[in-house]
Write a structure and sequence with these properties.
There is one protein chain. The protein has two helices and four strands. It is of the alpha+beta class and about 110 residues long. The protein is about 35% helix and about 40% strand. A four-stranded mixed beta sheet has the order 1-3-4-2.
Length: about 110
């Protein structure tokens, strides 16, 4: 399946629109990652634990959106947009959402 942020696929024509599809993932950040991130924030550097969590959440959200598009009979998602939010009273939850238009290409 083609997933793109553009409004079309070069060399292909959209023949049917199936509507907007979404992928949502909410994941918790554990205490060990928080401590490691706190140290990196103080001393500098990248937080590999957070980066891995973000990458996994992003991939899961895209896979969920793709599965929903496939269920509609689409072979592409165009105009894909992704958003990230921190949730929870202690900011311990990460929400990744993506959306796009499920289409059939000719």
């Amino acid at each position: 399946m083609i997933i793109t942020t553009t409004n079309g696929v070069e060399g292909r024509q959209v023949t049917d629109y199936y509507g907007i599809v979404f992928g949502e993932v909410i994941t918790g950040i554990n205490v060990l990652k928080d401590m490691g991130a706190g140290l990196r924030n103080f001393f500098g550097g990248r937080s590999q634990g957070y980066e891995e969590e973000l990458t996994n959440a992003r991939e899961e959200a895209i896979a969920e959106m793709q599965a929903r598009a496939e269920k509609l009979g689409a072979d592409a998602v165009i105009g894909m947009k992704m958003d990230y939010e921190v949730l929870g009273s202690d900011n311990g939850m990460l929400m990744v959402t993506c959306s796009g238009t499920a289409v059939k290409l000719g």
